Amino acid sequence: KSVDVGVHSITLKLQDYKDSTFSISVSDGQTSVVSNVSLVTNILTTLYGPVKIYETIGTSATQPSGLDLSTGLAYGVSSAQNGLVDIYYSSTGFLVQSADLYPNLIRKTYFFVSSATGLFDAVDSPLRSAGIWTNNIGDRENNYVFLYDHDGNYSKLKIVNWGGGVIGEPAWVEVQWIYNNTLLDNRF
User: Are the C-beta atoms of residues 158 and 179 closer than 8 Å to each other?
Assistant: First the structure.
C-alpha cells in the first residue's frame, strides 16, 4: 500500500544468503505479485569424495595414506607432497588422525565427533576451542566429524566405507567431506 506507480527495484536480504535484487512494476489501483525469487546461500563449500586412504604400513605409492582437505587429493605421508597432508590413516591403532602426529609432518587438524550421521544435514560446526576437540577418530566412527585444519578452515567429514586389513590388502577407509572454503567460517 502507498507505493508510487512505476518500476521499483527491491533487494531482499537474509543472513547467510546473497542479496537478491529484482524489479517490479506497480500500476495504479492494482496489486503486484512477486514470484520465483531464488535466494542463494553465501556459504562457499566444496564436496569431496569418496576418497580412499590406506593405512601407513605396508602400502605402496599408489595407496596414499593422507589427505589434503582443501583440494580433495590423497598423498602418501612419505611422498614429496606430504607437506600438504592434513589428516592420515594410521596403522597404529587404526585411527584417522592429525598429520602432525606423523614424524616430520607439521599440519595440525582438530576433530570433533558429532552426534549425527547425515553429512548433508546443514548443521554448523561448533567453534574450535581448547579442550573439547581431539586429534583423531577411530576408523569405524559412524557419526560425521567436524574438522578444523592448520589453515583455519572447517570441514565436515564422514567415513563412508572401510575394508582390507588382510594379507595382501592393507586396511583402508573411504571418506567424504564438505570443505568450507571461507577461512574461519563454521557454517554448513
Answer: no
Helix or strand run (H / E) with residue 120: none
pLDDT at 44: 95
Cell of 76: 602418501
CA distance 118 to 127: 19
Q: What is the pLDDT of residues 71-113, one digit of tens each?
A: 999 999 999 999 999 999 999 999 999 999 999 999 999 999 9
Contacts of 158 (CB under 8 A, 6+ apart): 117, 119, 144, 145, 175, 176, 177
Name the residue with cell 612419505: 78
Query: Rounded to an integer, what distance in angstroms lies between the CA atom of residue 113 and that of residue 136?
Result: 10
CA of 165: how far to CAs of 57, 77, 97, 120, in Å?
11, 19, 18, 29
SS3 of 38-83 = CCCECCCEEEEEEEEEECCCCCCCCCCCEEECCCCEEECCCCCCHH
DSSP H or E run through 161: strand 154-163
Burial zone of 133 (CB within 10 Å; 0-12 exposed, 13-18 middle, 19+ buried): middle
